[in-house]
């Protein structure tokens, strides 16, 4: 079983109320080979919501208490991101997922790149809060581009 970011299957749950449809991922869901998860929704956010970025580091730093997730308005939403990460971990464990495919650049889901915290569309190497937690727990986290090599 594969767990995938819901937005990649066409669910309009991104911060701005859109999706990031990946046709291969949608096919996997339709074939019952993948299940959907949105860490931000699991954390308690609604759609749409303010965009957010990690300030002061990466997802690992957030989990260590050394960085924060802040909305563009300045509101600190770190607790909701951490809550969503742990709820996602519960889902992943409950279905014994082999892989988790997450949406790149997200402060939750970025698996290799995230925005740098300046709200200028600049990106840095690093992972989001959920990707960092899952990897800490030994779960294979990949981006949608990496999925092509697996299925």
UniProtKB/TrEMBL annotation:
InterPro entries, alphabetized: 2-thiour_desulf
Classification via PANTHER family: HYPOTHETICAL CYTOSOLIC PROTEIN, INNER MEMBRANE PROTEIN
Protein name: DUF523 domain-containing protein
């Amino acid at each position: 079983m594969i767990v995938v970011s819901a937005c990649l299957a066409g669910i309009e749950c991104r911060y701005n109320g859109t999706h990031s449809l990946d046709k291969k991922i949608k096919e996997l869901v339709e074939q019952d080979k993948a299940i959907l998860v949105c860490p931000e929704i699991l954390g308690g956010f609604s759609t749409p919501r303010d965009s957010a970025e990690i300030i002061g580091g990466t997802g690992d730093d957030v989990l260590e208490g050394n960085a924060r997730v802040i909305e563009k308005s300045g509101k600190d939403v770190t607790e909701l991101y951490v809550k969503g990460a742990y709820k996602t971990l519960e889902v992943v464990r409950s279905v014994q997922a082999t892989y988790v495919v997450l949406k790149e650049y997200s402060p939750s889901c970025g698996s290799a790149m995230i925005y740098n915290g300046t709200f200028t569309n600049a990106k840095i190497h690093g992972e989001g809060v959920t990707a960092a937690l899952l990897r800490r727990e030994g779960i294979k986290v990949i981006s949608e581009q990496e999925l092509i090599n697996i299925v």
